[in-house]
Structures are given as C-alpha cells and as structure tokens.
C-alpha cells in the first residue's frame, strides 16, 4: 500500500513539508467503523504501516465522525471514517493549528473534506 509508489521512496526523497488528505477508503482503528462486518486487523495494520513508514501523523478533525454511511434503517446503517489528513512534522511546524473539517454529508452530492487552519498569514 502506498501513495502512487513505494512509501519509503517517497519519504526518503521528499524533504519538504507535505500533507496527504482525502478519502483513503480505509480505517485506521476498529472504532472508526460502526455496523456491518468488522474490518480485518491486517488491513488496518497495513494502512497504519504506510503512515508510519512515511512518518505521517494524523492532522485531526472536527465535524461529523463518520464521513461515509450506507443504509437507511438503524439496524442496517454502516458508518465509517474514511476521510482524513496526515502530514509530516515539517508541515505541522508551519500549520500547527490546522484541522480537517468533515462537512455535513449530503446523500447524492459527495463533498470533499477541506482544510481549515487558524492563524495562516498572520
């Protein structure tokens, strides 16, 4: 698993601040999923390994917990936190207060998460 290439190669060649964000279609921890078939531990560990090898830390978020949902009834509803941002320490040194905002989810329209940071340019 990697970001369009081997994560170790990316980490060793990119020395500038960097951020990756969006829908990774994977969760990091089992508590990031509600309902449905539990996610396999190996899949979550593989995803965590990519972040570790790239030396990326979770940016954090505010807003809705689950960024993807399926099922209309409480007994069939599945929710997962698939959208996230992760950055290296160089990026955090420039944007220490940045957080990802999970927007209100609209069923037909897919909204991308965006970054909101306080104090940029001040």
Can you walk through the features of this model?
- The chain is an alpha+beta fold and 122 residues long.
- It has one domain.
- It is 21% helix and 25% strand.
- The protein has three helices and nine strands, in the order H-E-E-H-E-E-E-E-E-H-E-E.
- The strands form three sheets. Strands 1-7-3 form a three-stranded antiparallel beta sheet.
- The longest helix is centred in the middle third of the chain and has 13 residues.
- The chain is flat.
- 11% of the residues are buried.
Task: Give a nutshell description of this structure.
With 122 residues, this protein is an alpha+beta fold. Helices cover 21% and strands 25% of the residues.
How would you summarize the topology of this molecule?
Layout: H1 7-13, E1 19-23, E2 33-34, H2 41-53, E3 57-58, E4 61-63, E5 68-70, E6 78-80, E7 83-87, H3 89-94, E8 99-102, E9 114-116
Parallel strand pairs: 4-8
Antiparallel strand pairs: 1-7, 2-6, 3-7, 5-6, 8-9
InterPro entries: Endo/exonu/phosph_ase_sf (IPR036691)
Protein name: Exo_endo_phos domain-containing protein
Organism: Gossypium australe
């Amino acid at each position: 698993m990697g970001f369009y290439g081997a994560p170790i190669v990316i980490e060793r060649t990119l020395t500038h601040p960097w951020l990756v964000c969006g829908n990774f279609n994977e969760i990091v921890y089992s508590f990031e999923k509600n309902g449905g078939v539990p996610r396999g531990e190996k899949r979550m560990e593989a995803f965590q390994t990519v972040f570790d090898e790239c030396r990326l830390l979770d940016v954090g978020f505010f807003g809705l917990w689950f960024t993807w949902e399926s099922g209309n009834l409480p007994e069939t509803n599945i929710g997962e936190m698939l959208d996230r941002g992760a950055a290296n320490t160089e990026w955090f040194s420039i944007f220490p207060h940045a957080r990802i905002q999970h927007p209100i989810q609209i069923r037909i329209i897919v909204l991308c998460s965006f970054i909101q940071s306080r104090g940029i340019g001040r």
